[in-house]
Amino acid sequence: MFSKRTNWNLTESAFARAMRRHRESGCPVLDLTISNPTACGFHYDEAAILAALRSPAALRYQPEPRGLLSARAAVVDYYREKNPSAPIDSEHLILTTGTSEAYSFLFRLLCEPGDEVLVAPPSYPLFEFLAAIQDVKLRPFRLIYDHGWQFDFAALAQAVGPRTRAILVVHPNNPTGHFIGREEAYRLTERCHEYHLALVVDEVFFDYELPSAGDHKERHGSFVFNSQVLTFVLSGLSKIAALPQMKLGWIAAGGPEALASEALARLEVIADTYLSMNAPLENALPELLAQRCAIQPQIRSRLETNLRELDRHLAGQKSISRLKVEGGWYAVLRVPALESDEQLAIRLLEQQSLLVHPGHFYEFADDGYLVISLIAPVEEFSEGVGRLMEGIDRK
Ligand SMILES: Cc1ncc(COP(=O)(O)O)c(C=O)c1O
Prior knowledge:
Aspartate Aminotransferase, domain 1; Aspartate Aminotransferase, domain 2; 7-stranded mixed beta sheet
């Protein structure tokens, strides 16, 4: 009856079972996996957001496959702020209902069933599903950690095969916080050129760059300004304006003009088939994007405070360390691998009522890693880190 691609193993994992049991017990849990900014105590300008959604222009139906021009113009302004001397063209933008739809459009554009896309784990857990639903295979070339995260370019060269169509990277990455350096961007572009691959760059966390101590690496800017190879940048309101519930993202296509125009013409047909944008949101986009000026300073301040708080807890002990974070909303902790990371996460939940992500959720190759959110409210974060350290000491 059903397609093989939906033959997922839907049995509950041990971690999911532990979470369900804990929930059913009614015992409150301290959640350090939280990634929903609307539940983290930030102040939103509610009146401005709601007023933007009430525009009378929403009463008109103006089907526009790439998205309303006025909405795309707001995205152009967002990038103009990053590089005033190199404005992007609104015709190079396709609005989507978030990045998941953008990924599905790109996989349909670039891949035949069974074709491959290179990804660099540990990374965004949804890739596996986004690719499988579109019959695309993921080929990993692992990020390595050596005084900071970096791409393994030798592994990348080995992973490229006759059916590879694109390299997909997250800039900065979730959850490692790896911010792509100038040199790495250059080498990625070179590899795409050499192997005739498209470059897909997920920049949803781009505005959350974090300073890291002793870092001499030159960081690369947004890939929307990449002109050498066919490049697709994905972003949207979910992180830029901390409004994931609005479900609005985009693809910015760039690179050699003839190739980018051809890609956009094809993407337009895909977008025209769905016409998934809705008028209230498209008309609200300029105001919703403008909200970033109010929300981003709050989030950046939270990230920096929680990182300092984490370091304060970690000082004076040696069994847990945090890996370097250059951007994004998460921190990776290196913990003693005396049990699997799933067993550790379950133990922390049962003994300390603390929820953290085991590293394998993000495809860390080995045990001994936990991922925690840096956007949790500061008091909860601090209490959670205290419980985490206590729980690890109890082993
Ligand atoms: C790397 C990455 N891309 C995309 C998203 C989701 O973006 P959207 O809500 O626009 O689909 C997330 C969500 O956490 C993410 O971590």
